[in-house]
Amino acid sequence: MSRTNDDYSGTISRRHVLRLTGVSGAAALAGCTGGSSSDGGGSGGDSSSGDGSASGTGVADITLTGATNEGVPANMHLNPMATQNYDWTAGNHIFERFAAYNFSTQEFEMAGLEDWSFDDQTVTLTIREDLKWDTGDHVTADDVITQFKLMEKTEATLWDFTDSVAKGEDDKTVVLTLSRPSNPEIIKHTLANSDLRIHGYQPVYNEFLDQDAAAVQQFEWEEDVHGNGPFKFDSKSNQAWTLTRNEHFYDADNINFSTYELLSRGDNSALQQGLMGGELDVVSSLFVPPTIAGNLPETVEEVTLPANWGYGVIFNHNDEHFGKRAVRQAVAHVINRQQVADNAGPRTKRPAPKVTGIAPADQESWLGDAYDSFESYGPNATQSEEATALLEEAGYSKSNGTWQDGDGNALGGSYMTPAGWSDWTTATNTVVDQLNAFGFDFEINSIPTSDFYSAYTESNFAIGAFYWMPGGARSSFPYFPLRWQLNNPDIGGGHNFEETEYTIPAMSGSGEMTINPFEEIRTVATTQDEAQVRETVQRVAWHSNQNLPILALVEKQDQSWLTSDGWDIPPADDAARGVKWPSHWLPKQGKLNPSNQ
Amino acid sequence: MVNYYVRRTARVFATIFMVASLTFGLIRLLPGGPYTLLRTRLLRQGVPAAEVDARIANLQNIRPDAPIWEQYIDYMIALAQGNLGMSISLNEPVVSILAKSAPWTVFVVLVSTILVFVIGIFLGSLQAYWEGSRFDQVFSGISISLMSVPFYVVAVLALYIFAYQLNWFPTAGTVGRGIEPQLSVAFVLSALEHGVLPIFSYTLGAIGGQALAMRGNSIQVLGNDYVQVARLRGLSDRRIATRYVARNAILPMYTGFLLLLGFRLGGTVILEQIFSYTGLGYYLISALNTNDYPLMMGTFLVITVALVLGVYVADLTYSKIDPRISAGGSDEAY
Prior knowledge:
Mean pLDDT of chain A: 88
Radius of gyration of chain B: 24 Å
Shape of chain B: globular
Oligomer: heterodimer
Order of helices and strands of chain B: HHHHHHHHHHHHH
Strand content of chain A: 15-25%
Radius of gyration of chain A: 25 Å
Largest sheet of chain B: none
Low-confidence stretches of chain B: 327-331
């Protein structure tokens, strides 16, 4: 927090606290390079200025300081539909979302919507009566319809199952007509996806209705920006975004401070330093290694949230070796997942309990009684015997400590991994060590991120590191990750997992079963009966566990940061911390306000 | 003589042309295309893959990937017209990005390089003057130590100590927030305040090298017959030091100064990253990360042209400064 008057001059400054902590900085410096590119954020900056006057009743002229590492704010804009240079860290404060998924309660929470109802092929969305633009005008059904129509042009996921959109019985009701009966959970997750915001301000967006999708995706909204979120756009510069409290926001009374500033920082180390030096009050998402986290001031609090994402192994199913189920299973048996998690980040990584396509936190609830029958592949051991038996049965033999096929070719080759994702590099080293110790013959092929995806997309690999779930709140609903493992759209299906019937051991433990996992998981999208959905999910998850389209290894926890120095923050057990990201969600709940206010 | 200047000028253009062609080719050998990082970023942002692909397909429809030879010809023609194209990642003319960022880099490099020379020459002269004294020994040791410390280590330490710990200087940026970029006292003071740490980091280590060079040159000059003669003539030490020794010792460093300016422009990449200082180097890294070819080419070109011009000016002016060098032939400065 940047104080704008001397009210707190008697209290000890955070910078002074930091100075007292002394050695902490050296550790931070040591760890400041090469942060995982999958994590992010940056911060720092100047002290803010102000005249010390209150800007409204009960509202202190105080600045909450966060950060963005999306790019230099002067070059960024606020059109959420744009393909490039939209700064979501700022946009999330300016545009309210429809709804949100709470990772603590595992339930949805309404935000810009008052209600949603699902009836066969109709979804009715009721916009909050008091949801207004920062101009004071109501957010109407027409605003949302304009946005949805533009989303149709841009081929947004919503339109995968939507046929048409129309105004309901009043100005606050939007009715989606579905192309087929759809599972409400899928629609809920689509609407609550964190990147979907209510932003269809008609005076700005209506003109794009008659143009190609590219027009709205190229549009850079920098002037006359109007949102409906807790803060409104004030200014941007090379150094920062400045947002001010939106008095027309429906829960504006919950916010007792005037300004939210997002400092622009290039890399993780600047963010870590910012937290350490008290320059930053909040950081939405930032990977902080244990050595640095241990040295942060006591007032800095870490909030961990499931990333529904994590390190796994991907196979090219057209490869002569890794296309064989037995070899994939042998790899799974050899890898000690606990060790991988311990080496790559004991604070933020956990081994996947069961190797399948369901997020770890949701595995027991979805699998129910079947949970125990799922193969564990030894989460904290190298199961050499099982792996040996599988490979021998598949026609491989061990010679001079290396597994070989019938022609004497060593089982191994190049193991791809993205360069610069520091925690992933550690995980890859551990995995390859374990595999080679068992008798595989792998060498690590570390490639730049820019080439990483294209190598997989072009199927130019045999085996390598890849995340095993798509990430985000959506992955809490097994339909998304299970389907994703099969067709992997992130790499255009480059792992060549064929859509066909597979014969695998039966779930009952005896005999076999035949399953086309693609077909079965697709049925979930159109099934509204919960029991039936659960049964299908269990069958496809079982297939994933047995056939290993992608091998799940560890789950990552996202780290979000708050500070209690000068700010009141909710206790660790408060469920409100469970919505991503706390620095976005808590202020409007009235749970992140200046102390003594 | 005129012929020499013409040839020399022609060579500047030939060098720039070759550098432009070479970097054009090399940059396109980089793995991945301009949208790979954008795709990764959108995926990590939580945008579903199919939607990401649709968005990028739309972008490509606007800016399709032409064959390389076509891109090359287009680029060269545009370059000749002073048009560096549009940045792919920032969707803004490269020229305007360079215009915004180059002054900051030039400011840091120019001030730093001048300081390096002024302080280095001063220290080196004193060391030579008192050759063998304790002062000379101590400062030679310090100079060697400074030379061996990379500037980015100084930068990280300076940032940590003076910005984060002592809070004397800002931690990032070129000017304070809310300060309009116009010629005002507030703006100049803020720019200076933000420039102190980058300039300090970029200057400290380099001083050692210049001081030692100046010391060596001065000692060499001091051993020359004409200095001995000057002494025999009974000239004052001050006159000998300034008119005879310093002038001749500085002479070889003149070309070094111009060249160093050019070289150091390219060295700010790491410096600007550390201080989140939005100059040329900052945008070069950003362009590299996003495979933004036009922006990469633009920043490379500015740095190259600065170096080539540095050499050119040194070549043309060296004979003016040192009349012993006659222009032409093999008497080029570099």
